[in-house]
């Protein structure tokens, strides 16, 4: 659905930004998907309005609005917003994904320390002392503040070896 | 004087040392969020919700409310000292505030802003006290169809006012509703859009979504070239305004209070509109209008008073009708719901002690802000001197902790990352985020009241037009959506408002 | 460098103060024996209905005593929706470590896994019953200005004009829905059900606002309303009159041999270590049988009828058998 609408329309309206078309396509696809699957959920049952009724309406709205938006774009393409700093996005997202992936294994303190050091020392190019102090406060400090101050347990390491030394 | 008694009871409850501490911490954290340029009030409040999950409902809400109106003041500091607003509602203050800084009168500007905020906030809270009882008693008139209609009005106002394109605003609203629908159907129990993931049965975590869409995506859309500003705190002696400055500020504060209060009651209006209009009012009515732009105290007093008056007045529709007037309030409402409190007419019948304690704490909090902000100006400026890289890292840290601690699960951290990317895409496509937050919070309530209404009418959609209150409300909603007049008169500030 | 680290330290200190401050309220307990419960670790008590209803009220009544018995914080968490299913899903999805327990009410907890269309992720075996607290009989009430003075008037009218009156339930396939279905089945009357899936407090509010005509609820929901003259209870579905509503005839007295009610107790996710289960069970028994709690329950119109975890389990199994038979009455038919 997404790719179809993109290729079908890009010939006629070369001036519409590809990212906008992709967006419209994605919204339309989500709308249609919701529309179809909500019928399966049941719009109306013998017990009254069914679980699918509201999603059905929303799917319809989403699909219809995507269509209107496409028409608007074809008539008068909007200016594209400024691009994003791709390096930044990749660095932040990738580091967050890695952090989330290893947090249960390494424990909060170690993984967060490494995460902060990456952002402070490697990306931020801060001096060692300031990086270390901030990273320690944000990892070990935050862990203890949350565990003992707030009774909020942040994860400890799944490795027994790391666990016994308090990580 | 029933109201007075209950308010006194509220003060008694709010004056425990824990609740005072929560109000104090909330003001402190709120001001910090307001000061920090990278994080707006919406993401800020969402981020701090997990901190309050272990508190009792009263303490948690007191703290979050304090955070909320604290942000309304925090933004002033950077506007005055740095010429960059910490949040949108203080943008207009930069003009005269920064001019005053250049004239060496930063201290007076900050003090007047703090006093103005206090006046505006207190008067608006008094309004809430007056309105609570009569509106609360109307509450029983609001059945499921009326409730649904009320939400339609709220959402249509926001859709009509947010962003440049109504189509995009509707898309944003529909997305929010769809996200809210993930999980077990709140009526019949069937799982919806969970893609077989057990984790999604309880729905997508609201905090993770908001933190992602508003907070993370904001960080991701940073561009290079931001440098650490060089700011200096005004010395303490210069903090006292002169008698002349006081006299000139008083009428500006009065005007600001009125404007902020009036606009704060209207769903969809953000604080920036109020401060902008208040500045406009000074331009028109102030006796010193020709000095505006060159460091006139009225240019600080008016907008800053309006801004805080607006923030507190915006709590009135939330408390009495259950309608969040702005995205930040919607987040606040999410926090209410997580504490098992449904804002709206029933709040005063079912949880009257909590409601009054919160109202009392608003008075206390406004006073705290006044006491806190002026002497602590040195602390705020030192926060501004923290390098961007360190701030970014610390904000990321708080986002991860915030997302993790809602369910103690890494899954929500991934949810946050995913919605951060979605938020970035939406920003890129120029789709306003505000309608999404609103529908995200209101979605379940809206769906439930729709289905209950249809059960009452046994399937007849006419129930929404045959009952007078809901008929008027639905009509109003349609009028808003289809009125091109309203679009023409839309204040320009709304288009540039990062809050929406 | 100097200023930088100073500022970083100041920031860290500020956030530390902020964080410990928040914990001040939560951490005010101590002294716990053995491994469970760990000192300072909060036990969540999941209530699958919204605050203000009878389930919530009962849970909040025993909460302080549980705290005293267990020596740690117990927090009541409301997870309303889908007639209890959302809260039960959360309860059974939690780790069986004793730090998550929940209020369980039948028939909602018993029936929701029986209907495949609900897609419930739990069965009876997902719960470890810890103790039963009360049985709350179902009642039927009308607006104070309603023309119907007796149960017979009402049911005859609902038979003559089917679906002319709306009646509340606390959600699909909850006790009230079953009761209504049983009434309809055996008397031929017909109501238009409105399901307030978050619980009794929403249903009651809608009834008070006259948005629904008939309130199908439990005794504890209507005791206060009756005193204030805001509802007229026409019948209670027990074999004997409820002590809190002495003037209200039973269904049997009115000529309808029907009984229904909601049973409430407390359970944990299945798989608790024995030690932990024992401690929780003992604490819950203490709390339920506490004279002050019993008295307060009585003020609400409820007779405490404690059953131990094991007996509650037996009772639960019996309920499952009973409700399986009447389930078709409240299932969708398309």
From TrEMBL, chain B:
<keyword id="KW-0812">Transmembrane</keyword>
<feature type="transmembrane region" description="Helical">
    <location>
        <begin position="20"/>
        <end position="49"/>
    </location>
</feature>
<feature type="transmembrane region" description="Helical">
    <location>
        <begin position="138"/>
        <end position="163"/>
    </location>
</feature>
<feature type="transmembrane region" description="Helical">
    <location>
        <begin position="433"/>
        <end position="449"/>
    </location>
</feature>
<feature type="transmembrane region" description="Helical">
    <location>
        <begin position="200"/>
        <end position="220"/>
    </location>
</feature>
<feature type="transmembrane region" description="Helical">
    <location>
        <begin position="383"/>
        <end position="402"/>
    </location>
</feature>
<dbReference type="Pfam" id="PF01970">
    <property type="entry name" value="TctA"/>
</dbReference>
<feature type="transmembrane region" description="Helical">
    <location>
        <begin position="108"/>
        <end position="131"/>
    </location>
</feature>
<feature type="transmembrane region" description="Helical">
    <location>
        <begin position="259"/>
        <end position="279"/>
    </location>
</feature>
<keyword id="KW-0472">Membrane</keyword>
<feature type="transmembrane region" description="Helical">
    <location>
        <begin position="354"/>
        <end position="376"/>
    </location>
</feature>
<feature type="transmembrane region" description="Helical">
    <location>
        <begin position="169"/>
        <end position="188"/>
    </location>
</feature>
<feature type="domain" description="DUF112">
    <location>
        <begin position="20"/>
        <end position="438"/>
    </location>
</feature>
<protein>
    <submittedName>
        <fullName>Tricarboxylic transport membrane protein</fullName>
    </submittedName>
</protein>
<feature type="transmembrane region" description="Helical">
    <location>
        <begin position="469"/>
        <end position="486"/>
    </location>
</feature>
<feature type="transmembrane region" description="Helical">
    <location>
        <begin position="313"/>
        <end position="334"/>
    </location>
</feature>
<feature type="transmembrane region" description="Helical">
    <location>
        <begin position="61"/>
        <end position="82"/>
    </location>
</feature>
<keyword id="KW-1133">Transmembrane helix</keyword>
<dbReference type="InterPro" id="IPR002823">
    <property type="entry name" value="DUF112_TM"/>
</dbReference>
């Amino acid at each position: 659905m997404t790719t179809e609408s993109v290729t079908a329309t890009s010939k006629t309206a070369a001036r519409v930004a590809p990212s906008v078309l992709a967006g419209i396509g994605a919204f339309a696809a989500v709308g249609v998907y919701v529309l179809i699957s909500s019928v399966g959920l049941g719009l109306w049952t013998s017990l009254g309005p069914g679980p699918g009724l509201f999603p059905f309406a929303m799917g319809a709205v989403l699909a219809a609005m995507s269509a209107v938006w496409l028409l608007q774009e074809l008539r008068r393409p909007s200016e594209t917003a400024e691009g994003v700093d791709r390096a930044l996005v990749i660095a932040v997202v990738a580091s967050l994904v890695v952090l989330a992936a290893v947090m249960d294994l390494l424990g909060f303190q170690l993984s967060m320390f490494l995460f902060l050091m990456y952002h402070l020392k490697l990306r931020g190019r801060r001096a060692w002392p300031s990086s270390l102090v901030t990273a320690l406060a944000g990892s070990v400090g935050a862990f203890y503040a949350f565990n003992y101050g707030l009774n909020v347990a942040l994860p400890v390491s799944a490795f027994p070896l790391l666990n016994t030394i308090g990580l | 004087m029933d109201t007075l008694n209950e308010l006194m009871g509220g003060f008694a409850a709010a004056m425990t040392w824990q609740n005072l501490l929560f109000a104090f911490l909330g003001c402190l954290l709120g001001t910090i969020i307001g000061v920090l340029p990278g994080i707006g009030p919406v993401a800020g409040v969402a981020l701090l919700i997990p901190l309050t999950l272990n508190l009792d409902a009263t303490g948690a809400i007191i703290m979050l409310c304090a955070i909320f109106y604290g942000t309304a003041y925090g933004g002033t500091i950077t506007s005055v000292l740095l010429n960059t607003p910490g949040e949108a509602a203080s943008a207009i203050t930069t003009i005269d505030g920064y001019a005053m800084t250049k004239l060496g009168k930063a201290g007076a500007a900050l003090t007047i802003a703090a006093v103005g905020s206090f006046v505006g906030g207190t008067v608006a809270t008094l309004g809430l006290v007056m309105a609570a009882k009569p509106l609360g008693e109307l509450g029983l008139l609001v059945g499921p169809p009326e409730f649904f209609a009320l939400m339609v009005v709220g959402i249509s106002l926001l859709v009509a006012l947010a962003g440049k394109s109504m189509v995009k605003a509707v898309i944003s609203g529909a997305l929010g509703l769809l996200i809210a629908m993930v999980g077990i159907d709140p009526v019949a129990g069937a799982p919806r859009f969970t893609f077989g993931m057990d984790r999604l049965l309880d729905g997508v975590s609201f905090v993770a979504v908001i933190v992602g869409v508003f907070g993370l995506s904001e960080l991701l859309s940073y561009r290079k070239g931001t440098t650490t500003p060089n700011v200096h705190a005004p010395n303490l002696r210069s903090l006292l305004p002169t008698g002349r400055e006081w006299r000139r500020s008083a009428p500006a504060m009065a005007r600001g209070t009125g404007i902020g209060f009036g606009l704060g009651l209207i769903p969809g209006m953000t604080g920036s509109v109020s401060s902008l209009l208040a500045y406009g009012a000074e331009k028109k009515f102030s006796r010193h209008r020709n000095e505006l732009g060159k460091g006139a105290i009225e240019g600080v007093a008016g907008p800053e008073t309006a801004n805080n008056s607006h923030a507190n007045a915006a709590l009135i529709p939330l408390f009495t009708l259950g309608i969040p007037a702005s995205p930040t309030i919607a987040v606040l409402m999410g926090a209410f719901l997580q504490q098992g409190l449904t804002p709206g007419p029933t709040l005063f019948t079912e949880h009257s002690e909590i409601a009054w304690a919160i109202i009392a704490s608003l008075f206390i909090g406004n006073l705290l802000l006044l006491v806190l902000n002026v002497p602590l100006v040195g602390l705020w400026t030192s926060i501004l001197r923290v390098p961007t890289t360190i701030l970014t890292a610390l904000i990321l840290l708080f986002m991860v902790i915030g997302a993790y601690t809602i369910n103690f699960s890494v899954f929500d951290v991934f949810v946050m990352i995913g919605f951060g990317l979605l938020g970035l895409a939406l920003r890129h496509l120029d789709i306003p985020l505000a309608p999404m937050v609103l529908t995200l919070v209101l979605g379940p309530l809206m769906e439930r009241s729709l289905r209950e209404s249809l059960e009452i009418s046994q399937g007849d959609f006419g129930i929404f037009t045959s009952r007078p209150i809901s008929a008027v409300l639905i009509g109003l909603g349609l009028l808003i959506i289809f009125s091109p007049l309203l679009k023409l008169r839309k204040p320009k500030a709304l288009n540039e408002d990062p809050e929406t | 460098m100097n200023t930088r680290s100073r500022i970083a330290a100041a920031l860290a200190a500020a956030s530390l103060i902020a964080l410990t401050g928040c914990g001040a309220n939560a951490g005010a307990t101590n002294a716990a024996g053995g491994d469970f419960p760990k000192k300072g670790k909060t036990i969540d008590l999941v209530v699958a209905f919204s605050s203000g209803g009878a389930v919530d009220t009962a849970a909040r009544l025993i909460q302080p005593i549980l705290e005293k018995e267990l020596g740690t914080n117990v927090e009541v968490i409301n997870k309303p929706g889908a007639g209890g299913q959302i809260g039960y899903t959360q309860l059974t999805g939690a780790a069986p470590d004793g730090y998550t327990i929940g209020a369980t009410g039948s028939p909602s907890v018993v029936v929701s896994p029986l209907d495949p269309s609900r897609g419930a992720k739990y069965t009876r075996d997902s719960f470890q019953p810890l103790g039963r607290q009360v049985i709350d009989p179902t009642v039927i009430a009308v607006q104070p200005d309603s023309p119907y003075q007796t149960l017979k008037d009402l049911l005859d009218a609902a038979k003559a004009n089917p679906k002319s009156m709306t009646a509340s339930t606390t959600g699909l396939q909850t006790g009230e829905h079953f009761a209504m279905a049983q009434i309809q089945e055996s008397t031929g009357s017909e109501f238009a059900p409105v399901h307030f899936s978050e619980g009794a407090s929403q249903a009651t509010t809608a009834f008070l606002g006259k948005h629904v005509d008939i309130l199908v609820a439990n005794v504890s929901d209507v005791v206060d309303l009756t005193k204030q003259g805001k509802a007229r209870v026409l019948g209670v579905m027990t074999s004997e009159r409820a002590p809190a509503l002495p003037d209200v005839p039973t269904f049997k007295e009115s000529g309808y041999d029907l009984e229904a009610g909601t049973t409430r107790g407390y359970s944990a996710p299945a798989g608790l270590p024995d030690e932990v289960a024992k401690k929780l069970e003992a604490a819950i028994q203490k709390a339920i049988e506490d004279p002050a709690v019993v008295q307060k329950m009585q003020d609400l119109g409820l007779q405490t009828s404690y059953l131990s975890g094991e007996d509650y389990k037996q009772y639960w199994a019996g309920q499952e058998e009973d409700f399986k038979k009447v389930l078709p009455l409240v299932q969708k038919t398309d």
